[in-house]
Amino acid sequence: MYEDKTADNIQTDLLGNITDDYDKTIGYSTYDLLKSFAIEESDIYKAISSAIDMIDVDNLTGADLEKYVYQRKGLQRKVGSFASTNLTVNGTGTVKAGALFETSAGLQFACIEDTVISGSGTIPVQALEIGSSYNTPANTITEIPATIQGIISCTNLSTVTNGYDGESDDKLRGRYYDMLRNPITSNNKYAFEAWAKEVTGVGNAKCFPTWQGANTVKVVIINSNMQIANQELIDEVQNHIDPKGVQDSNGNWSTWGTGLGEASIGSYCTVDTATGKAINISATINKDSNYTDEQIKQEITDAVNKYFAEIALDENNAYVSYARIANILFNADGIKDYSNLTINNGNSNISLSLTNDLCEIPVLGDVNLIDA
Fold this sequence. Notes:
14 strands, alpha+beta, 6-stranded antiparallel sheet, 30% helix, 3-stranded mixed sheet, 4 domains
C-alpha cells in the first residue's frame, strides 16, 4: 500500500513543500535535516504497511495465521499423525519396544510395545515421523536394519493408510473461510461438516440432513489425503460428533443421539466414507526418448491424483473433466503429443454422484499409454 513511501520519495515531497528562498541542495542544512526526517518517516510507513498486512488473513502464515483464526473463530491447526500398522514377524524371540523395521526406501517404523514371538506373530509398529509419506503398500515393510535375536523376517500384510500430514496454512485458512461463508447455527449442516473437519485426518466432509427421516443426519468424510477414509477414522469422527456407544440385542445403541458428542440431543448422526469411482485412462502417445515409460506413467499418475484431490466431494466440480485429463497429458514431460484419449472408454466428462445413497470420489484406475 505504501510502496512509494521510500526515504528518497518522502525527501522529494518535503523539499517540494519548502519555498525556493532556501537553499535545498545536498550539503545544506535544509536538505540534511529533511533527509533525516524522511528516513524515519519511511520506517513508520513500513510499520503501518506491516500492520495492515497483519489484519489480512491471506497474508498470514505459520503462528501468525494460527493466532488470527483462533482469536476470531476458535480454530486450531490440526496436527498430523503417525502412520501405524500391525507387522507380521517370523521367528522366536522378544521384539522390544523401539526395535526398528523399514521399507526398502528407508521408511522406518518402531515397535511400540514388547512382544514375545513364537514361530510367528504380530507386533504394533508406528512410523518414526508424522506424515503421509509413511503410508506404504502391503508387503513393503520387510527390512530389519538391526539384528533382533531369533527374528528372521517381517512384513506388513495390509496397506498403511493412517499417516496424515499436519494441516497446511492453506487448509487452515480454508476452514476459516468455510466458517465465515457457511455460518454454524445450532445443528445446521455446516456445523456437522465443521465438526468432522476438526478431526485430524479428515480432508473434507459432506452432510446430508434427514437422510433417513427427521432427526437423522449422514456425514460422509474422506481423509486428509483426499482418499477413502478407513474405519478407524470413521469411528473417530463418529465419536466426536455423536458416539453410538454399545449396541444391544435389539439393535439399539446406548448413547446414539443423546448429545454426548458435538451434536445436540435428538440428532442421530451416522458417519461414513465416500465410494471410490474408478477412472481408467488410455491414450496413444508420442514419447520423448529422454524419458522412460515408467517416468512418464508416474508423472501422469501424480498429476491426475493431484487433480482428483482438488475435486473430491466438491459440489461445484462433481465430475471428472475430460479436458483436464487431456491438459495433463499435453503438459506432461516426456510426451510430445497424444491422440485417442479415453477416460472410462469414452471421450466425455465422467459424472460423480454426491447423494446420500452414493457419494463418489474419483480414484485412478488403469493408466494405459500406448506408443504411437
